[in-house]
Amino acid sequence: MESKAGPSCRLVFCLLISAAVLRPGLGWYTVNSAYGDTIIMPCRLDVPQNLMFGKWKYEKPDGSPVFIAFRSSTKKSVQYDDVPEYKDRLSLSENYTLSISNARISDEKRFVCMLVTEDNVFEAPTIVKVFKQPSKPEIVSKAPFLETEQLKKLGDCISKDSYPDGNITWYRNGKVLQPLEGVVVLIFKKQMDPVTQLYTMTSSLEYKATKTDIQMPFTCSVMYYGPSGQKTLQSEQAIFDIYYPTEQVTIQVLPSKNAIKEGDNITLTCLGNGNPPPEEFLFYLPGQPEGIRSSNTYTLTDVRRNATGDYKCSLIDKKSMIASTAITVHYLDLSLNPSGEVTKQIGDALPVSCTISASRNATVVWMKDNIRLRSSPSFSSLHYQDAGNYVCETALQEVEGLRKRESLTLIVEGKPQIKMTKKTDPSGLSKTIICHVEGFPKPAIQWTITGSGSVINQERTWLKEKF
Ligand SMILES: *[C@@H]1O[C@H](CO)[C@@H](O)[C@H](O)[C@H]1NC(C)=O
Ligand SMILES: *[C@@H]1O[C@H](CO)[C@@H](O)[C@H](O)[C@H]1NC(C)=O
Ligand SMILES: *[C@@H]1O[C@H](CO)[C@@H](O)[C@H](O)[C@H]1NC(C)=O
Ligand SMILES: *[C@@H]1O[C@H](CO)[C@@H](O)[C@H](O)[C@H]1NC(C)=O
Ligand SMILES: *[C@@H]1O[C@H](CO)[C@@H](O)[C@H](O)[C@H]1NC(C)=O
Questions:
Q1: Nearest residue CA, atom 3 of ligand 3?
Q2: Which of 115, 182, 332, 366 falls between 20 and 30 A from 386, CA-CA?
Q3: Which residues form the Ig-like domain (predicted)?
């Protein structure tokens, strides 16, 4: 089937002719195909009248030909050569267009269509280019978090199965990340699958974060060649948790600082503004240089006035990062002397004192039988009307719930005093004798009559309280 040795010089001449005629200007005729598609190569020669057969071959890197398809013009038959690479993938149509299904990277070759007549061989070469769009780039092996002032691996940007190979670019907030020593370190790697000859590109990014990277989106892109030129595919965004150290510690007190009183439970809460926030602190109680290690809260129960003082908390590993607060435990003591139930004789003297001791100014209020007194009571000589229920009460206005009261129940006793008055009725028939008895407890009154006559007895009790 080879053309005869004779016209070999003519063959070269033909090639030159066809090169000059069919490809004016630059380069070879090229067919671009997508990976996996069918490559369609028209023969690009006018079919001569006396055509015997058409043939397709490709050229090996060393230039030697490999014949793959044959179509006889006279017998209208097609034959494919036994080339394993092209088994069941070829189709040579009547107009000598060759189709290769399922395009592979290894199909990137120079193919030649040959039309052979009795005395001539016409050839037309075609270059096949295959393109494979890579997978959408993905950021993988992502760091669970980044740390300020530390160069850490952020992740790998990977884009698979590209042909030809492409470039990977990283972006922070949409801006290209350029390599910068110690801050942005990029390591690019490409690998070719030996079977498919497709490239997988990986770019590792090591990055030194700052607090400005909080909520910043990182992306990457792959730039690759398609049949019509360079194209780009973008990855999804990745946002990283940025760890940074505490720069300030604060201490909070519950209940609110000016409302702490004896008996309260005080909860100190310590906060650090780092990320993640510190979980443990040292708490310093007044006058104690050694800190107590605790979670971020520390509770003092049932505090007394001696708990007044400066409270501090610091980081465990950096004790200079410290916060302090002054706490006053308010108190209010009231002592009433005498108190409780006191029984006195009329005319007795009774000094009464109600003294207070408090963390703030407090005023005393006196009540007698629920009526407010203008001044504190003091008795140089007791009267019956001095008896009653006295209450001495005080409160710290600033501190809710801090109030005290004590009471004194005063009983004034006295021997009965008798006063008699007589009245004679104008008619002269009867006399009224009034016996006026004053005393406490209530005296019992008894009449004794000597002689005869009838008596109408009437008794009335007067409770003297006021004049
Ligand atoms: C050759 O034939 C195929 C189908 O047989 C057709 O699709 C194609 O357009 C033809 N090409 C030319 C250049 O005539
Ligand atoms: C890759 O990057 C280089 C240099 O930046 C550039 O010249 C080249 O065209 C790029 N290749 C692709 C496939 O984008
Ligand atoms: C203080 O805390 C204790 C439990 O630790 C609780 O029994 C008590 O009621 C609390 N006192 C106040 C005033 O909340
Ligand atoms: C405070 O006083 C109470 C008694 O009122 C005592 O039990 C406690 O130990 C004292 N606390 C301090 C820190 O001195
Ligand atoms: C508390 O008492 C002092 C002196 O006794 C007085 O100067 C001060 O004004 C008082 N404060 C209040 C809030 O009443």
A1: 301
A2: 332
A3: 125-234, 245-328, 347-409, 416-467
| DSSP one-letter string for 337-394 | ES-EEEEEETT--B--EEEEEESS--EEEEEETTEE-SS---BSS--GGG-EEEEEEE
**pLDDT of amino acid 362:** 87
Give the pLDDT confidence score for residue 433 in this predicted structure: 74
Q: Which pLDDT band holds residue 13 (cuts at 50, 70, 90)?
A: very low
Per residue in 291-324, pLDDT (tens digit) is 999 999 999 999 999 999 999 999 999 999 999 9
Ligand 4 proximal residues by C-beta, below 6 Å: 304, 306
Ligand 2 center–CA 190 separation, angstroms: 13
Q: Is the CB of 265 within 6 Å of ligand 3? A: yes
**Does ligand 3 lie within 6 Å of residue 299's CB atom?**
no
Residues with CB under 6 A from ligand 1: 42, 93, 95, 97
The pLDDT value recorded for residue 430 is: 74
For ligand 2, the distance from its centroid to the CA atom of residue 189, given in whole angstroms, is 14
Mean pLDDT, all residues of the chain: 89
Instruction: Kindly state the tokens that stand for 37.
Output: 């598609």
What distance in Å separates the CA atoms of residue 337 and residue 408, rounded to the nearest whole number? 8
Task: Give the domains, in start order, of the chain with CATH numbers.
Answer: 7-131 (2.60.40.10), 138-243 (2.60.40.10), 249-327 (2.60.40.10), 332-413 (2.60.40.10), 415-466 (no CATH)
Burial status of residue 313 (CB atoms within 10 A of its CB: 0-12, 13-18, 19 or more): buried
190 lines ligand 2 (CB under 6 A): no
